[in-house]
Design goal:
By secondary structure, the protein is an alpha+beta fold. The protein has 3 helices and 6 strands, in the order ααββαββββ. Strands 2-1-6-5-4-3 form a 6-stranded mixed β-sheet.
Length: 132
């Protein structure tokens, strides 16, 4: 598959989103941070933006799971805005397992902007939006 095709871009972007989700649910902070550009930004409702690898590492370390959790991410729509840039919008549902089993905690969506750098897709900006 050519690196300039929409299918190639979509596959690379979806791989990053999936890797982020699995690393987050298992508390692999360094693996998460490696998926962001060095100046990458994470925006969450009610918080100041988290920017750069050091700040992202500190944030995700603080959010490491203390009980089983699962982010279900789907309905991802990828739009290439050039051979080295893409956006993706994904729905997300977050579950935690407690004493009574798995329960949904929040639903929302991710709005991601990614860059292709040195053969790797990286998250430049992730905006998380929660829905009531």
């Amino acid at each position: 598959m050519s690196e300039s095709t929409p299918a190639w871009v979509a596959a690379g972007v979806r791989a990053v989103i999936g890797a982020h989700t699995q690393a987050q649910d298992t508390g692999r902070t360094d693996d998460i941070v490696a998926l962001y550009a060095p100046d990458g930004i994470l925006e969450l409702p009610g918080m100041d933006p988290v920017q750069g690898h050091d700040a992202l590492r500190a944030a995700f370390k603080g959010w490491a799971p203390t009980q089983p959790q699962l982010h279900l991410v789907g309905n991802t729509v990828v739009t290439a805005s050039g051979p080295d840039e893409a956006t993706a919008k994904s729905d997300v549902a977050f579950f935690q397992r407690g004493e009574s089993g798995w329960a949904p905690q929040v639903v929302g969506h991710y709005e991601d902007t990614l860059r292709h750098v040195d053969g790797t897709w990286l998250i430049q900006r992730r905006v998380t939006v929660f829905q009531a």
